[in-house]
Amino acid sequence: MEKTITKEKPKHPMGRSLFLMFRWIGKQWPLLILAFGFLYAIQYLRTLVPLFGQHIIDAILKGDPSKLPPFLLNLVQGGTVKQSLLMAALMMVALEFIRSTAIIARRALSAIFAERIAYNLRNNLYRQLQNLDFGFHAHAETGDIIQRATTDIEAYRHFIGDQIIEVMRLIFLIGITIWQMSKLNTNLTLISLIIAPIIFTVAALYFGKIKKMFTVVEENEAKMTTHVQENVSGARVVKAFANEAYEVNKFKGLNRSFTDSDFLLTKKMAVFWSMTDMICFVQFCLTAVFGIIYTTDGTITLGIYTAFLAYSGNIIWPMRQLGRIIGDFSKATVSVGRLDDVLCKSDEYVQEKGILKPEITGSVRFDNVSFRFADSTYHQLEGISFAINKGETVAIIGKTGSGKSTLMNLLVRLLDYQEGTIYIDDYPITEIEKHYLRQNVGIILQEPFLFSKTVEENIGIADRNQRGGPRVQEVAKIARVHDDIVQFEKGYQTLVGERGVTLSGGQKQRVAIARMLLKPKPILIFDDSLSAVDTETDIQIREALKKEWKNSTVFIITHRITTAKEADRILVLDQGKIVETGRHQDLIKTKGLYRKIWDIQSKIDFQLEGGDDHE
Amino acid sequence: MNEELFDEESFTSNKIDWNVWQKIFAFMKPLKKPILFGILSMSFLAITDVIYPYISKYAIDEIITPNLIAETSDLSKLPFFIGMYIFLALFQGILIYLFIRFAGKIQVELAYNIREKAFHHLQELPFSYYDRTRTGWIMARMTADSRNLSDILSWGLIDITWSVVLMVFLIIVMFLINPILALITMAVVPFMVLISIYFRKRILKAHRSIRKVNSKITGAFNEGLTGAITTKTLVLEDANFKDFDDLTSDMKVQSIRAALFHGLYFPSIIFLIAVGTSLIYYTGGNMVWDLTISVGTLYLFTHYVWAFFDPVNNIASIFARFQQAQASAERIVSLIETEPDIQDSPEVIQKYGTLFEYNQDNFEPLKGEVEFRNVSFKYQVGEQVLTNFSLKVKAGESIALVGRTGAGKTTIVNLICRFYQPTEGEILIDGVDYKERSMGWLHANLGYVLQSPHLFSGSVMENIRYGKLEATDDEVIAAAKAVEAHDFIMRFEKGYDTECGEGGSRLSVGQKQLVSFARAILADPKILVLDEATSSVDTETEQLIQTAINKLLKGRTSFIVAHRLSTIVHSNRILVLEDGEVIEEGTHSELIRAHKHYYQLYTNQYSEEMLELSKR
After folding, report:
1. Does A350 map to a domain?
2. A569-574/A553-557 β-pairing
3. Tell me, what's the ipTM?
4. What 3 state SS string does A182-240 have?
5. If exposure means fewest CB atoms within 10 Å of the residue's CB, which of A68, A188, A448, B424 is most exposed?
């Protein structure tokens, strides 16, 4: 069978992850480009703000040339100093208004962009999970997949929605600022950039390195959480063995190591922020000192000096931020890889050829069918041949692992055989459309799953039109679960599943049976699905079924000889082969496996007899 | 757990409940040192933040302007400027390191203290608490709530300190330099406060409702995954996808709406500050022209307009979060203040020690006689389960309890284990009311095997040793051998070191049962409680379990909630219960002969064949 996905591909090729990061953007490209356009305009407007300071300090107050771009300069001419100041102030407010509006538009664009992609990704993943085959689901680790569906999608959304935008914003800001600075003074521009690359590199390396520590903290937290979880769910055991002190001590240790590793991380962060802050200040200091020298020797004006002070803030903090994000980037590529692990798997419909939708009456024929799991070296089922007429009841009996469930899973094509052919009404089942096949061949699993809905919705799940109708109660009566349901406080409106009341194993099985009976089916399979129901109810259900579904072919996998006894035919499986077949009366006379099982099961009764004699 | 979160999230109270907060603040008492140093370093940092633009003013007014006026290039004051700059940079760097360190210390230790106290208290709570409280609820207190609280209290405290000190200091400095410009700058602040509070509150609200949808989506993924095979067999793919699409569409719409709203906040502040800056430029520019102020002062004030934003934003955001965190605080307080309704009396603790520290020397040896004397019991919610119930069990006797679901079997077992106590009457062990002895005394002599055995993550060895923590490896192996578990354990690649997985998930049902038997036999209890499993295992494992049970029962007083015929047959006495009363009592053969309740119950359960055989 397929291995669990975590083990399958420990490392995803980096190139593919990068490729996918951008491919998943799909048709949303124009939104991103438009957002970039807005970003560019916003950052350009932002770099104009310090020029207003220069304009006021130099041009208005001193009479030196203004560095505002010509189109703006023409708009802020005033007769007197007072008028000029007013014009400049008003223009600044106007430009900042435009910038604010542009920021709002840009945020809207990137939100729509990111949320649409996340929406598509969630839907694709969900659809994919539904369509992945039985092998995947039999071995899937729910927690791991859920993490992919939540944390990893969120990490990717964060990447395209925030990180890409932020990176572009910083690049535009740094780029335009450098351009604006260079127009003012080349030398001071170069001086203002000396340490910037160092800041970037330090930030990128540091955040690249510190990631491992995050993992350690997360692992320690997980260990601690698991301990609490097990302690709480095992409260009976803890108390009955009087191990409270042991539990408290164990928790103390785990709590401490999580706390300590978390604090270690905080200390590392403290070092990072204080170190880089100091480096940044060195750069500011350099710009300021050379600015002062240039201003005093007349190379630049005072207004230009103040503009440079503002501009260096536009470069240095963004440099650190940029380094931090880029150091963090691989998080997103890891997430993309983990998502792709699931998305790139071929689902069970990939090579599907079945298109027929014939009327099915219910005869079943296995012709020399063999099956083995993908990673297995031996056949789980080998050379299985038998034919069942329409309307027969067939019991399948055998030890755990003998292949009973596999046999039935083949019939609904949860698994596909490698050799031989299975016919339903003389159509090879691989030629029948898969959904259509499953609509006609009902299987009730041993551990059925109920959805987080009301009992009524669960029973009516296969046909939403039946909800609230009389049919739901009818089938609940056939499955002998009606009496249980009406005893619930809210009756049929009781919420079940993960978030609702907990039903007993037997009640769950009976709800699952009712749910399957909603629509008539020519073939019905009970995969040990009466195991948690007591014998009396088991008999009642089977009798009710016989009455209502007399034309259907029924397969029952069971451990109970009493159930097998009444079947029209018994198939005895052992190690993937049919070793015996026939009716109870015939099989009981042989010395085979069936007889052995029968002996063991009735031994308790012989014991009872012995006990009687003894007393 | 998800639904639990919905309920909790919808909890909003607008009033701050100081009573609750006081209890939470109590957790911060041991952290006086980091709190003091954190506040100190943050206050100094705020002051340097105000001073920092002032050195630029110094450069403009004291170095550049005099030179420009005098047309000289006298840089004699530059070294002082550089010195100041470097000093401030170093000082600020150190302060940043310190405040992060101290705030971090407060955060992690506060969370530690809360979890520690909560976990300790959880161990004291009686079983009834676990019966009515969902695991998810407790887990959320231990993780999300303690994290949330420690986060807001530590960083909130630090941020508020910084914000308040900065603003106060800023206002003082501004008024000292120029009251008119100071007033103009201050004029912007009230608007900033209003805008910030308005947005912060709503942003938080929007995020909360997104989180709700998000946890619904997580729930849907979970359901889609665990129910995948069921979905296939019922051909529900399209219907499920439609439901899912409703959720993700909702998520999309809400997220975009929240982002749009969030997107308004910062730009409106930018615009507000632009208005303030222009006012400063206009008024200040005129003042520079009139020579009332220097260019440096003008520069300084354009900076100070911006300087108000961070503290205002911080305070608004903390205020909003603080209100929200109250729900977390209330839930944690409710957990640690839950009174255990079953606990040892002070006299008993005096003599026998607490749950965590036994005074084993005073433990009387336990023989195993159990007596219910006129016991009545009812759960907190629900009807009377037992009324005037009496039962005498001799040491070493094995009692099988049979009857329909709800007949009172589990209740009797819970009472024996003292998971619950009788509401009336008393239970005597070796002739003494068990309330007069400690819970530790009882549990040290009690073995309990659950219907669905609960294993812990860890190795098989550790799991068996749970029955007797000081047991040697040999003792563990002997116990495993005694219950026929040794063979299957040795078949594992790593033998006794095999990891059981969370909740024992890597073992089969039958294997888990055998391990839990080994655990019980290692504890060597005088009284054994066995809640038999109903789940179907194949016939051979069934036999193994049967043999193990027989060994387990030997020489102990045992109470069995029985489902297996052979276990019942082997017990000394069978009690047939109905509605909390013993309606029939006796050995198997006696009861079969009586042809009454037991006979009926078991002919139904054990098929027609048994019936024929027993008639013979």
Report:
1. no
2. unpaired
3. 0.85
4. HHHCHHHHHHHHCCHHHHHHHHHHHHHHHHHHHHHHHHHHHHHHHHHHHHHHCHHHHHH
5. B424
**Whether residue A209 is found in the same domain as residue A326:** yes
Contact B539 A231 (CB under 8 A): no
Question: Which residue stretches of A468-565 are H helix?
Answer: 470-478, 482-487, 505-517, 535-548, 561-565
Residue A359 lies in a domain: no
Cβ separation of A244 and B355 shorter than 8 Å?
A: yes
Alpha helices in A559-592 (DSSP H): 561-565, 584-589
Q: What is the pLDDT of residue A201?
A: 92
DSSP letter, residue A356: B
Chain B contacts in chain A segment 573-592 (CB below 8 A): none
Residues A446, A566 within the same domain: yes
Average confidence (pLDDT) over A145-149: 87
- Kindly state whether residues A393 and A281 are assigned to the same domain: no
| Closest-CA residue of chain B to A528 | B536
Report the CATH number at residue A274: 1.20.1560.10
Cβ separation of A245 and B356 shorter than 8 Å?
yes
Mean pLDDT, range B230-236, rounded to an integer: 89
Residue A358 lies in a domain: no
CA distance to partner chain A, nearest, from residue B15 (Å): 31
Strand-strand pairing, B384-393 and B432-433: unpaired
Same domain, A283 and A404: no
How do residues B569-601 score in pLDDT, each as one tens digit? Answer: 778 899 988 888 888 889 888 887 777 777 766
- For A356-398, strand residue ranges (E) read 364-371, 381-388, 393-398
Q: Is the pLDDT of residue B265 over 50?
A: yes
| pLDDT tens per residue across span A204-228 | 888 888 888 888 898 899 889 889 9
pLDDT at B608 over 80: no
Statement to judge: residues A279 and A408 lie in one domain: no
Domains detected in chain B: 2-336 (1.20.1560.10)
For residues A374 and A335, state if they share a domain: no
User: Which candidate in A279, A605, A606, A607 is best for mutational testing of the B interface (most B CBs within 10 A)?
Assistant: A605
Residues A315 and A432 in one domain: no
Q: How far apart are CA A51 and CA B304, in angstroms?
A: 18
Which residues partner with B531 through β-bridges? B561
- Which H/E stretch holds residue A176? helix A164-184
Using a CB-CB distance cutoff of 8 angstroms, which residues of chain A are in contact with residue B419?
Answer: 236, 239
Number of domains chain A is built from: 2
- Judged by CB atoms closer than 8 Å, whether chains meet at B279 and A53 is answered as no
Q: Residue A230: its pLDDT value, please?
A: 86
Please check whether residue A559 lies inside any domain of the structure: yes
Taking an 8 Å cut-off on Cβ atoms, the answer to whether B608 and A562 are in contact is: yes
Cβ of B59 within 8 Å of Cβ of A292? The answer is yes
Q: Are residues A381 and A299 in the same domain?
A: no
A&B contacts, CB < 8 Å: 446
CATH number of the domain residue A512 falls in: 3.40.50.300
